[in-house]
Amino acid sequence: MVSAVGHVSAKAPRASQEANLSIPAFDMKLFLASAGRGRRVSKFQRKKTIFTQGDPAGTVMYIQEGAVKVSVVNAMGKEAVVALLGPGDFCGEGCLTGLPFRMATATAISPTSLLVINKAEMVRLLRDEHKLSDRFITYLLTRNIRVEEDLIDQLFNSIEKRLARTLLMLARYGKQKQPRKTLPKISQETLAGMIGATRSRVNVFMNKFRKLGFITYKGEIQINNSLLSVVLHE
User: Fold this and answer.
1) What is the pTM of this model?
2) Which of 16, 92, 129, 150 is deepest in the core (most CB within 10 A)?
3) What are the backbone angles phi and psi of residue 79, rounded to the nearest 5°?
4) SS3 assignment, position 163
5) Please, are residues 34 and 41 in contact by the beta-carbon 8 Å criterion?
6) Looking at 25-180, which runs of residues are DSSP E strands?
7) Which domains does the chain carry?
8) Is the dihedral angle over the CA atoms 42, 45, 48, 53 positive or is it negative?
9) What gap in Å lies between CA 94 and CA 98, rounded to an integer?
10) d(Cα 192, Cα 54) in Å, to the nearest integer?
């Protein structure tokens, strides 16, 4: 009797291990790159609206490629650009806080591919998949730091320095070993909305940066390392 019980109990852990081995591990890279349960891939051409301020909010989006402008419009119709997002960023995460509608408008500023994740599926993943939840939390903390830096920038820095900093951030200096040199096509109106200035003032400093060799500006903006001197100069 004892040996029979011992025989059965010895087999149980092995069966449990085999069952666990049959469950595939969560592959975050594959998840963020493809459609599947509770998620789909959507593509948008340049200038196409992804969602509009006031729309129902029920999805979180992950930017696979391209660039997205996030803006808000007040009652007088004045637009303010609150963020420019790129590959690896999330968008529309406000729905996770319980907000029933979008607080901003998201627009593709270059051909863009998004992984659109249903709110319920995103909540489940954040609870069950620690790799994804860790990445998402890191993104939110980084985004929060960026918002604080933007506020300090608006309060204390000149238009010239704010513009230089924005161009460098769009080029992702400090975020990649090899930051991109050429930015997605972006208008001076958008840049003005990001730094709290007029288009005419942006035009003045863009021409100055070009004459000094900090940027090359022929439709697309190419950033040179020397632009850092504007931000670092006190």
Assistant:
1) 0.77
2) 92
3) -100, 140
4) helix
5) yes
6) 39-44, 49-51, 59-65, 68-73, 79-85, 90-91, 105-108, 112-118
7) 27-156 (2.60.120.10), 159-234 (1.10.10.10)
8) positive
9) 7
10) 24
| Two structure tokens written together for 146 | 């960026």
AA letter at 169:
M
Amino acid at 73: V
The two tokens of residue 136 are 């998402």
Structure tokens at 162: 């704010």
